[in-house]
Amino acid sequence: MAQIAYQFLSKFKTKNLLYQQFIIELVGTFILIVLIDNAVATYTFGHPSDHFAIATTAGVGLYIAVVFGATVSAGHVNPVVTFALATLRKCPWKSVPVYFAGQFIGGFAATVVSFANQRLAIVARSGLNGTFPSKTASLFMSNPGIRPVDHETVILDQVLCVGILMFAIMVLIDGSNNHNSKSATPFGLLFVLIAVILAFGSNAGAAINPARDLPARLFGFMIGLGDMWSDMFWLTASTIGTFLGAVVGAWTYYLTVEIHRINDNADLRNGSANDLNLTELRTTLDKLEALVDAEKGLKSHTKLLD
Amino acid sequence: MAQIAYQFLSKFKTKNLLYQQFIIELVGTFILIVLIDNAVATYTFGHPSDHFAIATTAGVGLYIAVVFGATVSAGHVNPVVTFALATLRKCPWKSVPVYFAGQFIGGFAATVVSFANQRLAIVARSGLNGTFPSKTASLFMSNPGIRPVDHETVILDQVLCVGILMFAIMVLIDGSNNHNSKSATPFGLLFVLIAVILAFGSNAGAAINPARDLPARLFGFMIGLGDMWSDMFWLTASTIGTFLGAVVGAWTYYLTVEIHRINDNADLRNGSANDLNLTELRTTLDKLEALVDAEKGLKSHTKLLD
Amino acid sequence: MAQIAYQFLSKFKTKNLLYQQFIIELVGTFILIVLIDNAVATYTFGHPSDHFAIATTAGVGLYIAVVFGATVSAGHVNPVVTFALATLRKCPWKSVPVYFAGQFIGGFAATVVSFANQRLAIVARSGLNGTFPSKTASLFMSNPGIRPVDHETVILDQVLCVGILMFAIMVLIDGSNNHNSKSATPFGLLFVLIAVILAFGSNAGAAINPARDLPARLFGFMIGLGDMWSDMFWLTASTIGTFLGAVVGAWTYYLTVEIHRINDNADLRNGSANDLNLTELRTTLDKLEALVDAEKGLKSHTKLLD
Amino acid sequence: MAQIAYQFLSKFKTKNLLYQQFIIELVGTFILIVLIDNAVATYTFGHPSDHFAIATTAGVGLYIAVVFGATVSAGHVNPVVTFALATLRKCPWKSVPVYFAGQFIGGFAATVVSFANQRLAIVARSGLNGTFPSKTASLFMSNPGIRPVDHETVILDQVLCVGILMFAIMVLIDGSNNHNSKSATPFGLLFVLIAVILAFGSNAGAAINPARDLPARLFGFMIGLGDMWSDMFWLTASTIGTFLGAVVGAWTYYLTVEIHRINDNADLRNGSANDLNLTELRTTLDKLEALVDAEKGLKSHTKLLD
Lengths: 306, 306, 306, 306
Prior knowledge:
4 copies of one chain form a homotetramer.
Chain A: H1 2-9, H2 17-46, H3 51-69, H4 79-87, H5 96-126, H6 132-140, H7 151-173, H8 184-199, H9 210-222, H10 233-256, H11 262-269, H12 278-305
Helix pairs in contact in A: 2-3, 2-5, 3-8, 4-5, 4-10, 5-6, 5-9, 6-9, 7-8, 7-10, 9-10
Protein name (chains A, B, C, D): Aquaporin
InterPro entries (chains A, B, C, D): Aquaporin-like, MIP, MIP/Aquaporin
Organism (chains A, B, C, D): Tetranychus urticae
């Protein structure tokens, strides 16, 4: 009977890379934003306010998404990361709409589910009518607090915040930085996201990810909780600031480091610095690695079918 | 004389894998839950409330248990993890009762020892008669706080909480995710447990592990501290929610990632993508690895007998 | 001239292992306890109380000491660790007095220096006369807070606390636990020390390390700050509890895991499970590793003499 | 068109190592100090005070800078680190002015940008006239709090603080300490910086980095915010204490560990301990490693030009 179940399930198998990337960005973004939304609600309604706890939850959400997506979509789980990598040809432009669709749909689903999970507490503490945009909305949207800010400041703030995050992503995915263990990058991203949320938590509420803010506003609008759009922070902080920041961060790294490395590599390829038959050695190593990975996958599947 | 002592001790040696797994799940669960229970008591009676400190202690407890059990039982230390892995044939069904026994007995022992250690503070602050179910019990059981919740919400909450935890376990133990250092997985689990405790701390008190909640209620019942069962959260949050969540999380990963990989591996096995004699290479590598591990174990034992 | 300076310095070189171990335990313990003492003072006088910050500082101090001592003394920096390892023949008994001397002298020096650094704040807030044993002493000694405790409880508490720490040390230094990167163990110890300080912070003040408590009491006694000894917690919590806990923790691991591995290794050594000429391969690998290490050391020294 | 853009950009390429080091120290220091300054402002104006959050942000900033600079400048991002390494010939003296220039210019730019980002909150809460040196200045400068301190104490405090940091840097960059994964060192530095900021946060405000304090005072002086210099803490805490501490920490490690290793290495070089043709093996390994790095860099560039 289990055999039959597995045969039924095998109909869902696909080898279409774009479809797999869509699913993985959707699920990864869903997990990231469910974690953040529930952490924000927990430290608003359930426990004393703890910005560090929220930032840590977000960092771990990114960590899970990055390891989850590693070999298929790379786990961007944020449209601005996808866009910035595309401007540097590190993600093909034709994949960008697929990634965006997965990320925004995942973000929308995460908002709905988190709202359902926190509904009783929301109703008990703040009620629903009309208050969603002010208090309740802050659970799911990215918006400034009560400190004085203007739109120029939140754009600058998010350019710095997302710029440093994107710069660090470039640093950590660059295999030439001696950060050589494949498992180090996801942990590095965990800490970097914590840090930028901590450092830029006040001006623009650490907007960072449009796939969290925009779907939450859309959902609030759909269930009739009032005006979600007129504060324009969805445009300045969550959209202009984050996209601009990601591009600035990515290109800063490209111009300060990557561009200077090109000729050196060409020299190496010409064999001027190495006497071994490098191509041959490299090919052997690649095959060995692929073999080990394949065996691992096979073994875990074989166990499944036993 | 020491020689004699070692000869005496060697009578306790066993090569029975199930017995070893029982012992390791028992000790691992004991350590995990002693750490959590004493942390909860510390931040209830001794220090200002600190949800982050409790979550960190739990994460580290899981880390210790996972490294401790790595080569024998894999260190599940939670019945829902064992069950979910069994539904995907990643843990044999015949081991499940053995794991459960170890986990629940370890959890019960941890409750008793933690109660003994915190007894004076419990008596001084809240007394024992009748108050155990409300205040004292919150030290050792998983239960909702004062915020409004219903049984549907705590089930949804625990499906999300344990679902994300179990999904992340699947991600991190899958050798194909480029997370290639064996020491990375235990650290990843440390952070993931912190995150789900932080994010889902309010609705159901981050129930997550039935081996903590159920033995604590049984112990309270045994020492006559009042009604432990009528709130039914032991059934909805700690049992239905956690088991359901673990299965949902594990299967989400299986259906979004693992299932799509099967044919690719078969292709690799047929040699279509690799020219080297891979089987031979793989065998050599495996033997080499086994040798190094064996030598290590032997060396530490040899030192012991010097 | 620099040449002359280096020649002068080279007179301090020694190849005496015990002397090197003494120095390294002394410096490592000094750093660990300076960090803890100043963190405790900072979160008593300078910043709001933050138990998590103190625990983190201690964890990082242990991390530094362990990497620092890795190849010479293994960086125990705590007499109870040295003692427990000796009972399992993982540290030679003849080294024990040398380690103890380094640890207690390092702890005493750390107390004196930390007292000097925090002197102005101590005088301003609590004065010196007579108050050292109550308020001031809590900066440098390990003592229970105001919650009700008795000597039986603090011994149980420290057996659990140090027992889990020592058990985790055994788990993490055992090369057979698949925790295969040499850099993982120090990070693991960092988190484990944080966790046991958090979980056992209230009953006995996380005594853990006699090289912190006893020298601080001796120093308070020497500078005439009143009675340091009559509360007897230095004996029950800091000495009996910690030594007993370390031995219990270490032997629990030995009896649950290590002892069962012995025959397996013998089987492997007899070649029954491996066809390769393992001894030869192993020898080659060891030499290769030694070479790489030697080259690294040589290179950094060569750079120094340029 | 993209081709043309890349050709234009390629004019900025340089192979001048000192120029590259200047840029990398500038950008690395900028990121480190933008993170710290905005975190301090966030936990002063926007969120409840959280020393742990500030320390974590600083630790992650150092982590990013160290991985970023790894292969070009090593990411010192602090003049006292550069200076102390130079005294041990681990950084050439001729590079020191270049590093200093990058660090101080990066620090100045970070102050200006952070001030712009936090300007509205600063004006709203404390106003600008005359108050910058007291309240506002504490956002960007390193200065003692209200606790009683004198100049001798802040110097001792910073010698301990920076001494332990620099000692740990020496420990972690020494390839002989069995801390063998290249990705472990940046994570280690992340935690070490957190710990010294936590432990030494009160006496001298964890001055540590003159590239943060001095440019901030210069900027406050330039925009006319009053007297920045007469408290003399810029000289005692931020300059004398930090430079002295870095030298003491670096030389403590050299004298306790490195110096004793010299002869052993010479013995190894003479072949007395190894039978293999080590030089040959080593050369092969080096070439293999260089090849893999080069291939990686090439591959990422090739993708860029596709």
